[in-house]
Structure formats: C-alpha cells, structure tokens
Amino acid sequence: MKTTQLFKIGAAALAFAASSASLATVLVVRAQGPSAKVYPPGKALPESAKIQLQPGDSVMLLNTNGARTLRGPGTFAVAATGGGLAEAANRRARFSAMRSGEVPLNPSPWNVDITQSGKLCVANPSKLTLWRPQKEDGIKLTIRGGSGEQTIDWPAGTDTIAWPASLPVTTGAEYQLSQPESGDTARVTFVTLNSPPGDTIGTAQSLIANGCENQLDVLVDGAPSAD
Hints:
CATH topology of the largest domain: Immunoglobulin-like
Number of strands: 14
Strand content: 25-35%
C-alpha cells in the first residue's frame, strides 16, 4: 500500500475518533430557573456543546466521571475543564459525608428504600432488595399490595433483606410498606424496565423517563468522583 494511502487511512481514523469524542454524552439531571425548559432533565448534550444560562438558573450535568452543577448567568462548556468537575464531586462527597453522620445513603439506586414513597424502577423484579437507613434494631415490615400481604422479621444489624418471593412484583401496582411498631409507612409503585441500562448515563435516562426521582437522587449522590 502506498504511503499516501496509509496517510489518508490514518487521517480518517483520527477524524473518526475526534468525532466520536465530541459526541460523548452528558446528561442534564436537574434544572431550575428560567432556562429549565431549554435544558430539561433527560436532555442529552455532546461534550463539545456550550450552554447559556440566565440569572437564577441552576443545571446539574452528569457524565461517566461524575456530576457538575452550573449556575447562571453565563456561557459554559459542557465538558469539564480544569478541576471544575472534580471540585463539584468533592463538594458532593463532603456533603454526603455530613449526611452520613445522620442518615446513611442508600448504596444502590436499585434498592427499595422503605422510607421513600414514589415510583420505583425495577431492573430485575425477581431479585429485589429492601434497604433501610437505620439497622440498629430489629423491626417488622408489612408489605401490602399486588397479590396479597407479607410480614417480614428484619433482624438487627442488617440494612438489606430480600423482597419476599411469595409476593411477586406487579408493574403499575401500588405497594404499601408499613412498620407497625413505629407507624412509618411508604407507598411505592413499580415500573419494570424492559431493557435494563448497562451504564450510568443509560440508567439516569431510564429513571428520568419513568419518573423514578428518588432513585435518580441515589444515582447522582453515588456518581464517581472525577480525577
């Protein structure tokens, strides 16, 4: 093969790589202020994009490196530059550490937090895990909905336990999670995902599209810190 042909092939490969990099996805996960309708949660942006924010605007962006919050007014590059993303991630980590002194954070967006009501997206209904923020004492948890009712004895010292197999999850049905001893009750409605996402961006998109806001909070709080 001639040298000129090799050069052209190499140049084409570099151009393709550069194009692919510029199309890497950044996702809007939170938006407040006048520009929220322009940058709604779920909007995907290439890393090469710039966004214009007005006074009072606040937009949180998520990519595979972590979360970054931009506040207007101003024009901002979507891609993190310098230590911006790392700084935002570190602030979030410090905030999470402060919170963890009072209430631990749910370690997985797929866990069923028994203290939170709302829609809950399910990737694998047959392998659901219940989670509670306080594990010091043993409790009884009564689940009502779908095909019946089940009471679980949750031992002290454990923060997770399997969803009872005798009470299959039904998409669209509401389930009531009650703790008779404390009187605490949460109500969740399950949404089964036909094609469970395999990455952070895909997961966030699915949670936003299906209105699973509590899980989105867990995903964003647990996003990896940027270098």
